[in-house]
Amino acid sequence: MLAGHLRMTVGELEQRMDSVELSEWMAWNMYFQPLDNSWATTGTLASAIYAPHCRRGQGPKPTDFYPVMKAPQHKSQMQNVLEQMKRDLDGK
Question: Which of 19, 23, 33, 39 is deepest in the core (most CB within 10 A)?
Fold first, then answer.
């Protein structure tokens, strides 16, 4: 997140920033002003908009709207994911 905030790659960040500066950024983020996290903001808004249309206690969590998926751990799981994607694209 910090690399994106500073508009550089992670590799550039690692080369240009020492541990002292990184610690300062971490303290700033924790105690003064959090860095922007657009996915957290979007997820919170989306879950708040969707929640009134759900049964009580069954509304979505903000993390349900994050675009990050857990990668399959085994070859057979990957095959299942790919087959499901193909079915979805083919219209089931």
Answer: 39
Give CA 80 to chain center in angstroms: 23
Q: By the 8 A CB rule, do 16 and 8 touch?
A: yes
The pTM of this model reads 0.45
Per-residue pLDDT of 79-89, as tens digits, reads 888 888 888 88
Give the mean pLDDT of 22-50: 85
* pLDDT tens sequence across 52-70: 998 888 889 888 888 766 6
- Using CA atoms, how far residue 19 sits from 9, 23, 26, in Å, is 17, 6, 10
User: Of all helices (H) and strands (E), which one includes residue 62?
Assistant: none
List C-alpha distances in Å: 46 to 50, 54, 59, 66, 88.
Answer: 6, 13, 10, 10, 24
